């Protein structure tokens, strides 16, 4: 559940900032996944 929350939180933050748009979306998702992985490793 913690992973889902981390993902939702980061995704919401990006949406709020208006970062998400078609062209860069793929790279942003990859970056987001990297950030989530880093956060999850900290939690272990």
UniProtKB/TrEMBL annotation:
Which domain of life does the protein's organism represent?
Bacteria
Q: What is this protein called?
A: Uncharacterized protein
What organism does this protein naturally occur in?
Desulforamulus aeronauticus DSM 10349
